[in-house]
Every structure is written in C-alpha cells, then in structure tokens.
From TrEMBL, chains A, B:
InterPro entries to which the protein is assigned, alphabetical: FAD-bd_oxidored_4_C (IPR004113), FAD-bd_PCMH (IPR016166), FAD-bd_PCMH-like_sf (IPR036318), FAD-bd_PCMH_sub1 (IPR016167), FAD-bd_PCMH_sub2 (IPR016169), FAD-linked_Oxase-like_C (IPR016164), FAD-oxidored/transferase_4 (IPR051264), Oxid_FAD_bind_N (IPR006094)
Species of provenance: Ferrimonas gelatinilytica
Protein keywords: FAD, Flavoprotein, Oxidoreductase
Cofactor(s) needed by this chain: FAD
Family: Belongs to the FAD-binding oxidoreductase/transferase type 4 family.
Protein name: FAD-binding oxidoreductase
Coiled coil location: none
Pfam families for the chain: FAD-oxidase_C (PF02913), FAD_binding_4 (PF01565)
Domain FAD-binding PCMH-type: 38-217
Domain of life: Bacteria
Amino acid sequence: MEQRDRDLIAQIEAIVGPKGLLLGRDVTARPHLSWGRGQCPAKAIVRPGSTSELSQVMALCHRWGQSVVPWGGMSGLVNGAQCEAGDLALSLERMNRIEQLESDAGVMTVQAGAVLQQVQQAAEEAGWQFAVDLGARGSAQIGGMVATNAGGNSVVRYGMMREQVLGLEVVLADGTVLSSLNEMLKNNAGYDLKQMFIGSEGTLGIVTRAVLRLRPRCSSVQTALVALSRFEDVVTLLRRLGGELDGKLTAFEVMWQSHYHCLVAELAKHPAFLPTEYPFYVLVEASGSDPKRDEAHFMTLLESLLSSGTILDAVIAHASEQAAQLWALRDDAESLIKHLGPVAVFDISLPIRTMEAYITQLEQRLAEDYPASRLITFGHLGDGNLHLGIGPVEDKTGVESLVYRSLSEVNGSISAEHGIGLEKKPYLHRSRSEVEIQLMKKLKALLDPKGVLNPGKIF
Amino acid sequence: MEQRDRDLIAQIEAIVGPKGLLLGRDVTARPHLSWGRGQCPAKAIVRPGSTSELSQVMALCHRWGQSVVPWGGMSGLVNGAQCEAGDLALSLERMNRIEQLESDAGVMTVQAGAVLQQVQQAAEEAGWQFAVDLGARGSAQIGGMVATNAGGNSVVRYGMMREQVLGLEVVLADGTVLSSLNEMLKNNAGYDLKQMFIGSEGTLGIVTRAVLRLRPRCSSVQTALVALSRFEDVVTLLRRLGGELDGKLTAFEVMWQSHYHCLVAELAKHPAFLPTEYPFYVLVEASGSDPKRDEAHFMTLLESLLSSGTILDAVIAHASEQAAQLWALRDDAESLIKHLGPVAVFDISLPIRTMEAYITQLEQRLAEDYPASRLITFGHLGDGNLHLGIGPVEDKTGVESLVYRSLSEVNGSISAEHGIGLEKKPYLHRSRSEVEIQLMKKLKALLDPKGVLNPGKIF
C-alpha cells in the first residue's frame, strides 16, 4: 500500500475506529461479484457506525477524489457492487437497527444495513407486514434494496421497493446529509427528492436510513397451480383474478412449458403436481384476512375459470407445506441453471400484449443461430417481468445481443428488477434513448461531480 | 406590445398557426389564479397542437430567455399557474387525445391536455377505472395532475398520481423531447427519470404525454358514515378496516365535530344522517367486484365495530343516491368557506399519531391569539392529510404562521396534495430543510439554466 493510501486509511480509521475498517485478508475474503463470486480487491472495506461517521468519511473521500463502492447485502445479480483495486468498499452492515415502529400507523424507520428478514419479522410481530419479499431475504439489506428498487414476488399487489419508501436519509458524494425522513403518504412540499435515489444503484448518494410503509398482515393465503393451453388465456386469467379477487391477488407467476417440463419431467426434481403437457402454468397466490371467506371466494373463482375453459387443470395447496412445494418449483432457478450448462440469464420486462410473439420469435432466432441452446421462460407476468434462461451458451455476448435486439423492437426493458450495474451497461441504449442517457449523466455530474460514488456503473 | 414581443409572437405563430395563439382579450378573459380568479396578464397564450410544435416553441423561448408558465386545467389551489405581464402562458388544451388503450393490460396513453373525466370515462368503457378522482374532474388535465402529483379521495387504496404514471413524455426547457413512454410496472434500466417531473409543478419540464396505469373497475361500492367518541377509536377503525377489508378500503374521510356540526346543525345544509354531538365522524367507502359478498362483508365488519364500541353509531348508504348525499356533506367546502367569512384554508399532512394533539394545541393557540376565529377540521385521514378552515381571519399571514409553526414541530408537511406554487412558497422551509431546498434549486438550475419554466414558483 502506498503512503498516500496509508494516510487516507489512517484518517478514515480516526473517524470510524478499528471496528469500522477491514483490511488485507478481511477484504479479499469478501466476494464482490454476483452469485457470491470474486475476492474483493478494494483497498479497504469501511464500515461506519453512524450517519455522522459516514458523512465525515465521504467528505474526506470527496476531497481526496477517492472512489467509494457502496455495498448492500451483496445479493444483486448485475455486478453493481464490483470493486477495482483503487476503490474503497463501503458496507453499512453495522448500521442495521430498526429504530422506530409506529404500530398504529404501520410505519417503520430503519437503518440502511437492516436485513430484509429482520424487517419482515419486526413488522409481523407488530401485526403488519413489509411487503417486498425475495429469495435473498436473509442477506439483502434495506439500503441496497432501496438503491436497486428491488422487486420480487408481490409487486403485482404492493408495488416495488419505491412504493414502500416514505422517507430517506442519504449521504451525498461530498458528505452532505440529506434528511427527508417523511412519514406521510402525501407530501407535495416541493420536489420529492428521495425518488432520485431509489433505483440509482449507489451512484447518486448512499442511503443511510429509510422510513418504510407497512401493510396489513394477511392471516390467510390461498395458493394454486393452474394449467392453460393458450397465452391469451393467461392474459384473461390475470385480468379476471385482478378484477374478481378485489385487492387480494398477491402473486401471478407464469411458467412456460419449457420451465415446468424441465424441472418436473426431465430432472424429476419436483412432484408432478399437474401433467407436463400443458403449454402454460401459473402459480397464483391470494391473501386476505379471513381464511374461511377467502378460501370460499378463491374456490368459487377457480371453479368458474375451469368451467369457462380459461384454465384446464388446477391443483390447490391445502396446507402451507403444499404451498411451499409449489413455490419451491417456481423458485428452483438453481436446478435449471445447472441443467442448462453454461447459461445466460435475463430479467426483462415488456408489454404483456407483446410477450407471446416475442418469446416465439426469440425461440426461432435461437434455433437458427444457436441450435444447441434451449430457452426456458418464467417470471412475474403480472408485472410484465419475465426471466429467461438460455443454455448451453458459449457465445454469451451473441445471445445477449439477440435477446436485447428483439426486446428493443417491442419497447421492452433490459432490466425489470435487477438493475444495470456493470453487467448490463453495454445494453442500456437498448432500453433508453440517447436523450435519457444524457440526462442521467447530467444528474450524475450534478450530484457527484468528482465521480467518486460507484464509478463506472450503469452508464 | 413592443417590437421584440411582436417578433417573438410572429415566430411562435409560424410554428403553432393562428389556432395555436390567443392574444389580447382572449388572454385577459382567462383567469390565472386559484378559484377561477384573476385576468391573465401574459403576452399571449400559446396552444401547441403537438409535441413537435411545443418543442420548437420552447427552443425559441429558451433562445430568447422568454418565461413560460405551463397551464393545466386551472383547478390548482396554490397559484401555481399565475402569470406576470412578461410571461407567455402555455396551454395544452388542444393536445387532449386519448391515444391508446390496452384493454387487456389496463394501460392508457393520453396527451397531457386530456381532461380527467374524459380519461375516467374511457377507462370505464373498457372495463377499467382510472383511480385518481377529485372534485375538479371536469376541468383538471392529466398533464397538470402529473405536474402537481394530484391526490384526491382514493389515495388510501390506489396512491397518488405518481403511482398511476408508468411513462411520460416531457419537453424540457430548451425544447428537447424526453420520451420515456414506458408501459411496464417494472423497469429498472437506469434512473427512473419520470419521477423528477411528477410533482415538479411545471418548473423542470412540460409533460406532453402520459402512460397511465388503470385498475380493475369495481362493480360494488359500500358507503357508510360512522360516529366515534375518541380519536384513538378513529385510529383503531382505520387499522381494522385497512386490515379486515383486505384491499377494498377506498376512502377514509374524517370530519371533526366542528365540520359536521357546522354543516348539519348551524347551516342545516345537509340532512342529519347522525346526531351532531359526536366528536368524530368518518365517511368510509369500500369497493369490490361482488355486490352481495361485499355488502355482507362490510355489514359484518361494521357490526363487529359497533359491538366492540369502536364506533358508536353508523348510517349505511343503501343506494347510490344516499352515498352521493354523504359525499356531498364531506365535500361541501364551499358552504364552510362562505360561512366562516374571510377564511384561511390549509392542506397539511402529519403523522397520524400526532394529529389529535396538533389539532388540540392549534385550537388553543387560535383561541389565545385569534379569539374571534374558529377552526374546522376534516380530510383524508387515511393518508395523514387534513384540510383546515380557519375564519373569520383578517390577519391571514399571522394565522398561516401559527398553523405552520405547530406543524414543523410534528414533522408535518405544509402541502399534502395541493403543491407549493406561489401561495405556499414563503413557508417551504417549514417542511423542507435548507439542504433539501438547495438540492431542489440545483436540480432546477440543471434542467432549466435560464429559468424560463414557471419562474418564481415553489422556491
């Protein structure tokens, strides 16, 4: 380490104390890439204990022109927290307290390092729920989830992270503390500045505190797997469940036959809840406050959909274990990834009316250019969000170009919920115009003129 | 009119044509202040017929340093569209088409001048609803509603305007067209630029098109007026209805006794649906898809709330006429304003836990400083939003200071849904810190360096 770096580190240690700083092997022991890969090459990992400490650290880094890569729980999938040798990594893992929970109003104030599962549990103990849920709940931190505008399985009912954030405290690139810890659903006093930071992937500021909106806890959950023969029936099903379950539709997860057949028939990793010959499967979840009433409502609706021919077959979970099995099938990306061999995975969104033609065309183009590869399709259809797995793939760049070219044609997005990070940066222009990208860059230059915050990410 | 102005007007007319320009009496005939007051003193009203025309007009105004005041339907209440003699007013009233309605997905693309009622009707004809509703539905334009992040009566269920906007097209101060006409619920491809413009009151850009999220149309509505003795019961009621009506609670409108007693007993303007001696009244609305099931659910819940003593009395609307009468009572601000004499009205938000003490303290402070005035309180309590009427008031500034001083103490907002405009500009610092206001000004300078867009508004 050079003298200049030793000086900087010493000054940082004077601010955050020895517990606030990791060096040497404690740094390389940490993965910094997606899927838990990589040995972090940063100079140090800074772990401030308070907003005030972080503010001082950022003021120092800003003066020195020192790049800082903010970390959340490291469950992102686009290398948004990747470090170079010259960087400092910044972890808020010591700032993980739930500071306040207003149980009358359903409002919770947390430090950014609080882990999702901890937040979910605290909400539930107070008779509420925190409505964003995702597989990485045991590691994902609220600050990272705000910075990436996390999505997950219940967006169709509750929205993404953006819709759960009432207020934020953010440390800006120069150490300024921007405190907008609003608690109200309505506040039109000037620009809603927090919106800028949500989904900005740590490039505009560092989230240190969030005021979260909680939702009423549901005491009843209905889960079913249904089979359909045509995509237009999937659309009809979504519309009828959206309308006739009133506010209760919580998840609408589609699996193309490619997905279901692979996991159930080829790999035999999951029980054959339904025969494998149907073109489409949808995992439906509804939740409400009265088990008896809700179940009757759900059953009546499914019967009506069966008798109208919209759905051809259905299996209903009669206990939470069965529901868990259905979700395990839906969530078993790991088996698919292993099975496909070298795999390219995608997280796209597109208008629902364009989905069927898009997938059909993509299959054709893949068959022509990459005849050895297959396409597996599933995702949060209610949000316009599909996940694709394509493999085996040697030429990952070629497949990416193919997927994103077709996507541009239907005005889709190269990232529905994962963000851009480094991984999707080469394709940003596929979903955003030059005018949009220029304005993003202007915002970046305004808020971080020296480019110290998460440099090189997004654009 | 000076030569320079005549030259500018001629150039604008060459872009927008004679239909696109109003001059002289056609300008002064138009009110430009809140409540339909004032004779517009602007040089001209420009009415472009397309985004391209507006883009050219803005490029010209930017070169000339000509200030432009964007107008919506002129139903705002904070003088956000007020003009000075040197300004050009800009109306999008000719750009009022509904361009696309995806009836499978519930997505509608409209030009900014489309009127709310027209959008609501088109949505309903397609089996959907547009979920923001407010009294000025016959005049409020979508562009203005986006620019002011309009709220209204159903925010507790569907959110404000921000939550209904999937995509925007915006003309920037220099005429650049920023097209972000996203249709998907999820799109994390870089910064979500549209968020900056929502609620910016025409100071950062001019909304020309919006992609709107529609919601399933409800075929059943339950409406009740209930009476309560304690504020804590109002909070309990909100929490129980929020939890036990599942997603169906659509409105939760509170009236302090001051409001109900004034309209029903003193003015006798409305039927005495319930006796006037209760401390609190709440207008509750729920809506769903099955009249019979929804009514049974609603009645069971109300009975339980009556038997637990949370509510003391209730009247249920058994037909839409009765529901309309209850809403007419809630919405009769006009009678209150007339009755109070010279009146100061407020649109504030504050944490629900602080409301009772805030109102009690405000009443005490008013009694001390303005013994001739009375306070009338009502509003969208489910959103933390109260409307206050205080009158008779000669010293409006003094009363404003009193209200906003108390509000700062509880971290409340001087504007829940109306915005800042010119009217609340002197008090912005009561709800926003100096750091926040400085960042707002930096954003303004970035997007409108010459200050041509709605100059002087907000800060």
